[in-house]
Amino acid sequence: MSVSAQELNKKIHDQIKNKDILINTCTREGITSFPEFKEMYDPIYEAYTPDAATLIEIKKLLKKEKITIVFGSWCGDSKVNVPNFFKILDAAGFSDKNVNIIAVDGNKKAENGLLDKLNILRVPTFIISDKKGNEIGRIIEGPKNTLEADLLAILKQKTS
């Protein structure tokens, strides 16, 4: 089943979290308008200031990569790190068309085989792939340093 045939920004009631959540492929507009996610997204996005020097380096290296964001609309780490990651991508001038967003349920699963071969254990997981789709690296749950420093370290791997 192709992505276009799937319902974007699908909402279900998650029995594990006992709340409505997003599941499967989402758009940025879909996640930022989902009430529970939006209430934290907007203020966190506005408040985050990525490191300027690191951003300059990211802009030089972040070109044709593909980024997959696997998150939980119910997850505290996702509510903090997804807005901050988008702030970095926006500041770097990276196009949303190269970002694939997948929402998972309380078991960290999605439907239709969307997560097959991705080995998702924690959310959010930010997977950076080259233009051919080969994974370069990932940031899992939270950054080791900062999101932008970790992203830059991943991007530098592809050039070494």
From TrEMBL:
It comes from the Bacteria. Residues 38-160 form the Thioredoxin domain. InterPro entries: Thioredoxin-like_sf, Thioredoxin_domain. This is Thioredoxin. It comes from Pedobacter rhizosphaerae.
